[in-house]
Amino acid sequence: MHDAVPVFDLAEWESADDRRRGELAAELDAALRLTGILLLRNHGVPAELTDRMRRQGHALLQLPDELKRQYEVQRPYDNGWRGLGALQASAVDGLTMSPDLHEAFHMGPDHRTGDAAFDHAYYPDNKWPREMPEFEATAREYTGHMTRVALAMQEVFATALGLPATFFSQRSQRATWTQNINWYPSLHHVGAVKKGQMRVGPHSDFGTLSLLDRQPGRGGLQVWNERDGWFTPPYVEGTLAVILGDLMHRWTDGRWQALRHRVLAPPESAPDEELVSLVYFFEADPDARIEPLPAPAGGGAGMEPVIAGENILEKVGVTLTPTFS
User: Sorting pLDDT into bands at 50, 70 and 90, what band is 113?
Assistant: First the structure.
């Protein structure tokens, strides 16, 4: 196991006494200061459900493009289908690279506040595929577990920082989130790979945390920290990768790192390799004010506060008027 990517046991944390919680919190803190990722075991997500979500998601993305096009994403922050090459994750970091070599299908929450403009901006409608009526129930069951785990990890994070356990989660009861099914096709499918092209280019996620259920592969996930540079994190069957995002980096005033990561191109040494990743991006209530924590919990970077939803939309190229506060 790479020392920068520990395995954190959620069941052990929940049953631990104060002394053991202190030890676990110290390990978690060290990993999030250095790299911004940990592996989570005993998270309570049924393996059968994960397998069903991956299998049905893969089948969805194998539908003909002319069918998927009716569910296509229509604006920067939207749910639905994005075809091969429609994304360029590295562009957010100001890098100019070729489009990412994957297809994706996006889902989100059904929260409604009664403010139509607010709800349209932050809670876009889901586009459930009529050709696969069983998929909606599977996705709702799976994302229900993801939301549960995300809120549980927010409480772990708060406790580890010496804050009230609900410090983050109480500001995430109407959180925006996006569940992705990412299909990384084989080299046979994508054809020639351009120089520098990847399945997903280098980037950090926008939100507080992401939950990744990945498949191991030669064209797979790599992560970065200042000590080690780019490296492949360990793969442990049955774990979820918990990935820190930009909002948590800001909320901890730079104490914890937003994980810089990428997914390598399909390799010539494994031309048949295709992978399906399930990625859940969790943010916060869109009107939550993210106020960087003061010391000793915060890292002292002097970052500015933001409104969570505005910050997310600005990063995908949307400017809101008026400002929600």
Answer: very high
Give the list of residues 6+ apart from residue 57 with CB closer than 8 angstroms, or none: 105, 135, 181, 183, 276, 278
Q: Are 129 and 63 in contact (CB under 8 A)?
A: yes
The pLDDT, as a whole number, for residue 155 is 98
For 190-247, the pLDDT digits (tens) are 877 888 888 998 999 999 999 999 999 888 899 999 999 999 999 999 999 999 999 9
**Number of domains into which the chain is organized:** 1
Mean pLDDT within 134-159 = 98
pTM for this predicted structure: 0.94
Question: Residues 6 or more apart from 140 whose CB is under 8 A from it?
Answer: none
* Residue pointed to by tokens 């064209």: 219
The amino acid that residue 118 corresponds to is: F
| Strand-by-strand arrangement of the 260-263 sheet | 200-203, 260-263, 221-225, 229-231
Angle between helices 18-34 and 134-160 (to 10 degrees): 100
The candidate with the shortest Cα–Cα distance to 189, out of 264, 89, 266, is: 266
Residue 249 in domain? yes
| Rounded (10°) angle between helices 47-61 and 134-160 | 130
Length of the chain equals 325
CATH number where 169 lies: 2.60.120.330
One-letter amino acid of 98 = S
| Full residue range of the structural domain in which residue 149 is found | 7-315
Is residue 185 included in any domain, yes or no? yes
Residue 54 lies in a domain: yes
Phi, psi of 34 (to 5 degrees): -85, -50
User: Is 321 among the domain residues?
Assistant: no
